[in-house]
Amino acid sequence: MQQQYEGYKDLADSLKSASALLNLERKSQLHQDIITICNHLVNPSFRIAVFGPFNHGKSTLLNAMLGNRTLPIDLIPTTGVAITIKYGSDVQTRIMLVDGTEISRSGTEVLQQFAILDGNRQMRKDVASVEVFCPHPFLETGVELMDLPGTNDRDEQDNLVREQLLSADLVIQLLDARKLMTLGERENLRDWLLDRGIKTVIFVANFMNLLEPDEQKQVQNRLRFVAESFRAELPPGFSNLYRVDALPALRARLKGDVAAANSSGLAAFETALQNIVGILQPNRGSVRLPRVQAIASQIQHSLKAKIYSIAIEIKSFDDKQNSKIEIKQKAANLIYQGFTTSMGELRDWLALPKLLTKYQADAAVALAENNFKAWQTNTLKKDLTQLQFAAVKWLYQAYEFFQEQRPQDLLIPFPSEPQVILPSKPSNTDDLSEPGSIAVGGGIGWLLGGPVGAAVVGSISYLLNKNIQTQDEQLAKESYHQEVAKLCITIIEDYLSRFSSQGLSILNEYEQKAEKVICFEFSQEPLEITNRREILQQLKNSFNQLLRELEKVKILSNHQSYKEIPKYSNTNRKYSPQPKRVKTSPQKDPGVKQQQENTAKNSETRVKSVSPRPEEVEAKFRDWELNEEIARMKAEMRPPGSQTGKQQNTTQSNKAPKQPKTQMEKDKITRAYGILGLQANASLAEVKQAYRTLVKKWHPDLFVGKPQLLKQAQEKMHLLNEAYTILSEK
Predict the structure, then answer these.
(1) Distance between CA atoms of residues 480 and 423, nearest Å
(2) CA–CA separation, 436 vs 640, rounded Å?
(3) Could you give the strand order of the β-sheet that contains 83-87, starting from the edge strand earlier in sequence?
């Protein structure tokens, strides 16, 4: 039994904990029911409540059972509080006031002051509880009797009665035989008892002695119908209907008239009551738990409703945050993609074989013509600056988007200007008859004057078109201008090698620094949302705990427990995209000279500009698309109403198209659709796709070296750009 009550205590604690999380108002019915049932669960006594409308003789019946006028009785509703009658060696009364004051008196006269209604038939506000102690053998068995105020008088009294009924293991519903089962009594039977799991109910009919014999038979039949229609959960073999004439029974007890007591029905009722209690009392958990089940079901539904409400609130916040984070992650990945691609192009450009192929001839010629500084500024530096800008611009995109660390400029210095120390001149310096001695038009060599200097410049192109390795055996036979040309080529190779090695090293360091720019920090969520998460977890834990405690006492539930959710971490975190990189080590390629032979420009003195390959045009277009998408995401990240006119153009796809105002505008739009090869009213997505396809076909860079086609492509691109602008802004 002790172990059983420990289980009930855990269940009561779980109910109270859930009630606290629900923040129920103290005066709400559910809160009052929870407090009442929790206190009752751990009460070792078996409590019997006498329940019914005022002036039905409840106090009279209890006085008859106790054998004296213990309780106040009158012809008006007098009981103003729930009076609990317990066993005591002497008749005493103990009253607890709301402020904690305890009043103890011998006898029960003090009840007239604290336990009855006042002149306005109002309950006292300062009384918390009233207990009467009596030396009665029935009470000594651990039974408590409870005299409840009459119902159907005042709402305040009805609320008190409804609350106290939950703490009764057995309810005696007193009926007036003269007006049997009024509408109010039937409603109370359903709402206050049956719907709350209170089914251990005995009906006692009073005032039968005031009816004529014929009327008594009719009432008896009606009482039997009432009793049969209400399926009380009493031990087998016991009736749930008894007749007791309360006032005659009390008079008989006070006089000691056993025969009169028997004829009043009191003796038979008391015998049945004692036997019923003897069976129910040892297993009073089976009586109390159905009431717990009814209340627990209300608590579970309230918990689930609150859990759902908070979960929806948190999900809404998380969805918005995740949407922002997703946009930032996508932007970071796009920026990183653009940055790594640009860095890859710069790294590829800095690779020594590429530098030698593209610049060695021009640089050697510039060196021979004493024009190296100008060549370095106008050609090499110009190309480097363009590639550097293409890479660094992505970091400024990231800084503008994420506002993390400000990017540093990418600085790749040039090696010191090459110096040439001429070999000794042979006696015959006018011999220009060797192959490759091609005179250079315009300019005179600074290493050697006159036609021999020009021959040096020509020999540079010649030597770069031959397999230089095969010349080693003929070194002694070379003319002076070829020896000088070869010296210029070697010096430029060394210059470009140092430039490549230093540049690639700087790129590796710069990429590591870029990781601190292309990243963003997950902002901490508001404290209010964090607190809501904690409350949600507490609610789920409380729900699961209540479910476990109900299962322990064999109360089944249709609800499923909530899965445990991981503890939320609100610490600072950073996101940095880290796709795999393919790095090119700054090594010298042993086949450099072979590549030179395969890529040199035959017998020309300068390496002509090469038309961009289609993949280079594709790379430019890719950057344009990335920039456009990043601009769109920036617009999405800004609060509504904060877009500038330029930013609004990036989100045209989200807006309703504007209607053209004039016929001229309509004609321009129709012509623009025709230029892009589209039907009128094509979607913006179709416009973009058509523009993308046509740009890849007509990009002017594809026609370098083809003057007629280049002019045609430039005109076509002008029309395409004009059409795209018109349709994207319409």
Answers:
(1) 8
(2) 71
(3) 102-106, 92-97, 127-134, 83-87, 143-147, 46-51, 170-176, 201-206, 241-243
* Element of type H or E holding 722: helix 707-729
Structure confidence by residue, pLDDT tens digits, 510-568: 998 898 899 888 888 889 999 999 999 999 999 999 999 999 988 888 889 998 777 77
Q: Which amino acid, residue 231?
A: R
Secondary structure in 3-state letters for 592-658: HHHHHHHHCCCCCCCCCCCCCCHHHHHHHHHHHHHHHHHHHHHHHHCCCCCCCHHHHHCCHHHCCCC
Q: Where are the alpha helices (DSSP H) in 403-479?
A: 450-464
The candidate with the shortest Cα–Cα distance to 345, out of 495, 503, 509, is: 503
pLDDT at 613 over 90: no
State both tokens at 344. Answer: 């890859």
587 SS3 class? coil
Whether 264 contacts 244, CB under 8 Å: yes
* Separation between Cα atoms, residue 342 and residue 479, nearest integer Å: 45
CA distance 409 to 71: 97
The H-or-E segment that residue 490 falls in is helix 480-514
Distance between CA atoms of residues 460 and 438, nearest Å: 10
Backbone angles phi, psi at 128, to 5 degrees: -90, -45
Q: Mean pLDDT across the stretch 638-647?
A: 49
Percent helix, strand and coil across the chain, each to the nearest 5: 60, 10, 35
Q: Cα-flanking dihedrals φ and ψ of residue 179, to 5°?
A: -145, 75
* Residues belonging to the chain: 730
Residue written as token pair 């009364």:
93
In this model, does residue 508 exceed pLDDT 80?
yes
Q: Is-contact 478 433, C-beta < 8 A?
A: no
Rank 74-78, 569-573, 587-591, 622-626 by mean pLDDT and report only the highest. Answer: 569-573
